Every structure is written in C-alpha cells, then in structure tokens.
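To close the section, here is one more complete example, presented without commentary so you can practise reading it yourself. The ligand is guanosine-5'-monophosphate.
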Amino acid sequence: SFKFALQKYVDHPETAPKDVVIFYDENYTVIRDLFPKAIIHWLILPRKNSSKLPQKAFTSTAFYDATLTMVEKMRLRAEKELCSILAKPNCKQDVTSNNENDQNCGTNSSSQNLIERMNLPPPLYIKAGCHAVPSMSNLHIHIISSDMNGPNLKNKKHYNSFNTRFFIPFDELNQLKPDDSRHNNQIMHALIKDSDMLCSWCQRNFTNKFTALRAHLQEEYHTYVKEKAKK
Ligand code: 5GP
Ligand code: ZN
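Output:
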C-alpha cells in the first residue's frame, strides 16, 4: 500500500533514481520528498529502525544521537542548496523539475554561500522534525525550509502539519513526556484541522483561507528574492 512507498529507498537506495536519492550509507537514506511542501523538502530515512513511531523510536539514546549527527549534516547541506537556489533565481524555480540546472544546485558550496546563509530570514531556515501522526509507515525525518512555497502544498492540513505542534522538532523528540499531547492521535488530528493558519513569514492570521495564504506565501518569497537581487 502507499504507506510503504518509502520502503524501497530503505531497502535499495542504490537502485533508486539519482535525482531522488541525495545520500545513503548503511544506516540512512536521504531522499527528496516527491511532493514538496517547501522549496527544500527532504526526508531522512533510518534504514535499521524503519517501522516505529518517531515518539517511540528516538527514546533510544544511541539511535537518537546517531540520527542527530545525520540531521545536522543534512541541515547544513540543505542550507547550502537553498542558498544556491536563491543566488540563481532561474535555477529550480519549479522545484519539481529535473533539468540539468537542478543538478548544479547545492554542489557549489562556496564561502559566499556560507555568508549568505547567515542572512537567511527565519522563514528560510531549514527545520528538522517529524509529524506526530505520520502517514507513511517507514520512520522518516523531514528536512524542510520554512517558506512553504512547495508546488504540492495543497490544503490546510498540509500547511498546519508543518506549522503547529503537529510538527515535532527533532530536538524535542528524545524528551517528550508520557503525557505530552503529541502522543495523542486524536488531539493531533484536531489540531491540524482546527488551528488557524498563520503565515510562516509574518505571522499574519489567514484563519481558514488557504488560497489567500498560498498566494501570500508566494508573494512573501518573491518579494524576498527581488529585494535580495537588488543588494
Ligand atoms: P508524513 O506525513 O508521513 O510525515 O510524510 C510523508 C512524506 O512522504 C510526505 O511529505 C510525502 O510527500 C512523502 N512521500 C509520499 N510518497 C512518497 C514517495 O513515493 N517518494 C518520496 N520521495 N516521497 C514520498
Ligand atoms: Zn506573511
């Protein structure tokens, strides 16, 4: 079933398309999310602990620490890719395309990128974390920029699943209390369904108006890119 669509990347990363697989070793596979919800949207898949809930899986300190190392490595790599996308506005405007330009993104990790990285506004920060109630069965950690300008952001649940407590930052995954509401599926489902949508750039409240929010997020991003180009 679709719930195991990520299994193939866990079992055979070497045979998966090169434009999907970003990295793999014996313990982790890192892939591009097939339905990106932001400019950068990757998934880290642990290969040896692949079917447990994140709230359970990361109670093991050794496993948490090893995964944290991978998370930090990928966060850095994602920042570099985002910086190179921003430096070349024509490159990868459509994040789903697979042209040659895309391949170049993220490979030139010059010192200029590192300087730019420090100037990224909070909405372009790369965050790492898991959904409280994942839809896919294989354990995975989202590496995602906060701009929310992915071509596959199509509804309120998509948006709120990354912008409410439904999204559990990786830093918090190893220290959830037993009574934390993020263990409770019902509360979590209600949270993404019922919470107002706040713009991740300016916090403006769009309540239930998804189409207006979507347009506004695009405007926030394009304004940022234009302003940046002037400098
Ligand atoms: P979840 O809600 O389970 O935390 O997120 C699962 C993620 O997997 C979603 O962001 C979804 O877009 C992504 N996804 C679903 N199917 C596939 C697939 O076949 N390949 C890739 N690369 N990503 C997928
Ligand atoms: Zn805004």
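Once you have examined the tokens, check your reading against these statements. The beta strands are 21-24, 28-32, 41-46, 126-131, 141-145, 167-169. The radius of gyration is 17 Å.
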